[in-house]
Design the sequence.
């Protein structure tokens, strides 16, 4: 019996020791603050909490600030004049408000002349830049279709009017020494165009011109024949078409959304047959002079020719107008 009472006493003592530890392990609950009644003023003499939110803490004052001398803030021009009275005296506000304004604003704008899904007609005139012995003046027409605003495909053709140098002909007749030259009949090409640069510049004070810079390349055909310079008494040549490659670039200046001026330089590269600089001597088996044999009129080697042509023309875009479709 004494043993049981001792055990009960030990259990009670252990329970009493665990109660304070259990109470200390509980989280401390914040003390509830009394809520002020609606419309009640905060406690007098008590400063608001510096970190309090004015929207949630009623102890923070929200009264508007009264301007100096008790005058209410009117805003606008009156406040500006109060800051800088001298500037207000120098400006006639009424006259400035009545003056005419220029409604044109020159700023970064959308592309002035779109090219996507539009056709371009480009009639032009061309002039040779790198042949001092014969001038190949040309008139031509280019038609282009732009798949995107920077990529296009097209065709162009040239018709040539040749003017040989009189000095070369006179020298060859007198000394039998001359430069082999060639004349051109026509030229046609299929081209690929790329427009990497677009911009604008100001001119004549009030005008803004829009321009683009493009590069072009393609393949086609050209009809040429040598001009008889060394032995014009015996030699005559026929027109022969040859494959040609072209590469170039230019600038286009727009005067409105469908009309502009185009300046371009194009290099037409093709294998050409030139006149034989020497005259065959002797006769064949039939007693005909070898100088009259067409097989002796052309040089043995084919020469690659670079015909650099400057072109100046007009550009017409169709359809002449369009509508912008901007992403929403």
Sequence:
């Amino acid at each position: 019996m004494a043993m049981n009472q001792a055990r009960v006493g030990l259990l009670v003592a252990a329970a009493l020791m665990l109660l304070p530890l259990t109470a200390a392990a509980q989280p401390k609950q914040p003390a509830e603050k009394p809520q002020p009644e609606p419309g009640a003023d905060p406690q007098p003499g008590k400063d608001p909490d510096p970190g309090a939110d004015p929207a949630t803490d009623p102890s923070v004052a929200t009264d508007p600030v009264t301007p100096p001398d008790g005058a209410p803030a009117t805003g606008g021009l009156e406040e500006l004049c109060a800051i800088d009275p001298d500037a207000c005296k120098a400006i006639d506000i009424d006259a400035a408000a009545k003056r005419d304004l220029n409604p044109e604003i020159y700023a970064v704008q959308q592309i002035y002349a779109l090219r996507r899904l539009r056709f371009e007609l480009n009639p032009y005139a061309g002039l040779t830049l790198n042949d001092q012995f014969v001038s190949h003046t040309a008139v031509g027409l280019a038609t282009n279709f732009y798949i995107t605003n920077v990529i296009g495909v097209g065709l162009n053709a040239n018709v040539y009017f040749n003017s040989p140098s009189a000095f070369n002909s006179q020298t060859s007749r007198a000394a039998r020494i001359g430069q082999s030259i060639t004349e051109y009949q026509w030229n046609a090409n299929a081209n690929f165009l790329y427009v990497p640069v677009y911009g604008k510049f100001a001119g004549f004070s009030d005008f803004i011109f829009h321009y683009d810079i493009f590069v072009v390349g393609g393949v086609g055909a050209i009809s040429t024949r040598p001009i008889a310079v060394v032995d014009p008494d015996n030699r005559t040549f026929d027109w022969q078409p040859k494959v040609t490659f072209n590469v170039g670039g230019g600038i286009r200046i727009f005067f409105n959304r469908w009309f502009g001026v185009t300046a371009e330089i194009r290099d037409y590269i093709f294998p050409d047959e030139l006149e034989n600089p020497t005259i065959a001597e002797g006769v064949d088996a039939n007693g005909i002079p070898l100088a009259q044999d067409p097989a002796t009129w052309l040089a043995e080697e084919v020469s690659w020719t670079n015909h650099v042509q400057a072109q100046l023309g007009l550009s017409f875009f169709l359809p002449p107008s369009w509508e912008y479709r901007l992403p929403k």
In short: The two ends are 93 Å apart (CA to CA). The beta strands are 119-128, 134-146, 151-164, 181-203, 207-227, 240-254, 259-272, 303-318.
